[in-house]
Amino acid sequence: MRLFGMVWSEMVRRPGPSAAALVVVAFGVAALVAVESVATSSEKRVAGQMRTLGANVLVLPAETTLQDYYAADSHGESLPEEYASRITMAQLKGVEELSPRLSVECELDESSVVLTGVLPRQEFYEQSAWQSFDLLTADIDSFETGGGLGRKHEGCCGRTCQLTTEEKRSLASYAKTRIVHELDRDSVLVGADVAEEHGFAGGETVRLLGADFRVAGVLPRTGTVDDARLLGHLHRVQEVSDSGPVVNVIEVMGCCDAMAADLVGDLKDLLPGARVVTIANLVEAQVTVNGLMKRLSYVLFAVLVVLGGASVASVMFANVSERRRELGTLMALGATPSTVGRMVILKAATLGVAGAVLGVGLGAVSAYAVGLRYLGFTVSTPPAIVLTGFGTALLVAVVASYVPARRAARLDPCTCLQEL
Amino acid sequence: MRIELWTVTLLLSLPGLASAATPGERVEAAAASGKHSYVMFYRSDDDRTQSMAETIEGFVSQRPDETSWVKVNVTDSAGKDLVERFKASRLPLPAVFGLAPNGAITFVRKLAVDTDTLEGGIVTPQCSAMVEALQRQKVTVVCFHPSGSPAIPKGVQALARDRNLGPQLSFVSAIADDPAEARFFQRMRVERDITSPAVLVFAPPGSFIGRFPANVSSATLAKAIHGSGKCNCKKCRHGN
Q1: Is residue B60 part of a domain?
Q2: CATH classification of the domain holding B129
Q3: ipTM score of the complex?
Q4: A107 has which bridge partners?
């Protein structure tokens, strides 16, 4: 009989102790994989937000607290829409786009949806152009000293700067900019999930808050809360919801980090009654939690090593004691001490691998479920974490079985046979 | 019949009845007679509103041939067309807009205004043409010509013919011996005693792209416009 076959038949014959060790190893690996997966996905998400939204700033009512950038308009508090005009009229350097938003709950085909009022980009261009003459005279004055905005703009990597007018008009650019270029007052744009659920393709008429809207188009999937929303013209949404000229949030898209460096201070000076939040502020809490989770994963790693190791060692010691006669017989029949030792180590390694398989699966599924249910983002398990789980479980099992294996290899077959 | 017409003319010329025209109509009438208008929006007759109104009224009374003004309550239906045009109900109020006769907005101020701003809002015809073009989102090329030499530089002519950029550009010219444009030269920092044309390029909403000599090539102008990020070219990504 081959070595593994002997190990396997022994495990089947005495399933209880093996199962106990396997469960301990599996839980240790599962906890390690789950926490590491959540921490890694969260770090990636933070890095992604900093990369894509780093230059962005949120202007919120003073009393709001906020956890998610994309749901910044869901707190129910409001601030005057004129704040957006103040920002436009102040012509702050580094402001590439503005997006004041007002979200209201409403019914659509007997299901609850969120209708978000947004102000199309075209209206801000118009407001900005009111100050053309002021801007150009100031720009001429500062040009000689290198302050000309037209010249400074060279090399700018702002998202909207990269788009032609046609691209800005296309709804496809919404996924990149989250700004609607044009939208008439009686039209709505439909998020990808809403379109899927209600079968919208464009051209339909929907009744929201007692008013009829034409579905002007379906927005591309953004992976944000916008997928489950309908977007209407801010002023029309204010009318139908009877909200008055208010918004829940003003999203200020910074042109790029370099140009938006002083933006936060400028906005705080301009709007003393509002709360100005940067993406760095917003992800600060998440970064702290990520750090805690990283440290927790080190603790779990230690727990896996100690508890898993102790469990495997204890099971293997018991197993060797219990099988003294069997092992002695094997040795009397010609099995070498190293074969017996390898049998013990192989059993422990099998437990380690099986525990790792179970643990990685359990950990990955739990992390995914927790992410989906409680964190609002998809958690994936990177291969490096899977390898760490496997490697650790195997190593712990092998190291923990070394002493029992040596003990088994040193058994005296004569003594064992006398016990028969 | 003749008496009736005379009566109507007389009645319309009475100040009380003239003011019966809506603020929008009064702005249109002022533009038709070549006057600049100041449109002041307010919500309540508070101190700020009164102070702003006094400043504007005082200034306009000194320049009655060049300027006029209207005061519009954003809640009053009479001024609805202006309120909607300038979306004034959503602005910090009081606010005042300066309008050139061609409709170009020469300034907007919220909460307070001073006479220097009101003075600065009076622009020359070519300057207002430039501002109006920028407000239509056009990259604007302005040629300042020396006295008696209105010839457009060749580089500018070639640029106007450019198939990609041409349709996105607007061209404005001012000549040094036109006294009406003296202020335009001054504000654009171009000497009136120039001996050859100066070409200034602006991008919307109000970025100064650069000043170029008369012999500038269309390629140099095009490069500067592309660099401003306002070229709107499909293949041009200035950040790359």
Answers
A1: yes
A2: 3.40.30.10
A3: 0.76
A4: A112
Q: Between chain A and chain B, how many beta carbons pairs sit less than 8 Å apart?
A: 120
Same domain? For B113 and B179 the reply is no
Q: Which of residues 58-87 of B touch A (CB under 8 A)?
A: 87
Which of the residues in chain B have pLDDT under 70?
A: 1-20, 229-240
Evaluate the omega torsion of the peptide bond into residue B153 and state whether it is cis, within 30 degrees of 0.
no
Q: Tally the residues of chain A.
A: 420
- CA dist., res. B114 & res. B44, Å (int): 20
Q: Which H or E run contains A101? A: strand A95-108
> Which residues 58-97 of A are in CB contact (within 8 Å) with B?
81-82, 85-86, 89
| Type of residue found at A402 | Y
In which domain, by residue range, is B219 found? 125-227
pLDDT at B20: 59
Element (H, E) at A215: strand A211-218
Last residue of a domain, one of B120, B145, B160: B120
pLDDT-wise least confident of A3-7, A397-401, B236-240: B236-240
pLDDT tens digits along A20-40: 888 888 888 888 888 888 888
Q: Are residues B159 and B201 in the same domain?
A: yes
- Residue ending a domain, choose from B61, B85, B120: B120
Break chain A into its structural domains and give their ranges: 3-48+286-418, 63-272
Under 8 Å between Cβ of A294 and A38? no
The shortest C-alpha distance from B9 to chain A (Å) reads: 37
Considering CB atoms only, which of A81, A132, A140 is closest to B204?
Answer: A132
The Cα of B3 is separated from the nearest Cα of chain A by a number of Å equal to 47
Q: Quick count: other Cβ atoms within 10 Å of Cβ A327?
A: 23
CA distances from A293 to A29, A35, B133, B239 (A): 15, 6, 57, 38
Contact state of A150 with B123 under an 8 Å Cβ cutoff? no
Task: Show residues of chain A in contact with B123, CB under 8 Å.
Answer: 133
Of A163, A190, A151, nearest to A253 by C-alpha is A163
How far apart, in whole angstroms, are the C-alpha atoms of residue A130 and residue A117?
A: 24
A254: β partners:
A95
At A102, the amino acid letter reads L
Map tokens 């990369």 to a residue: A51
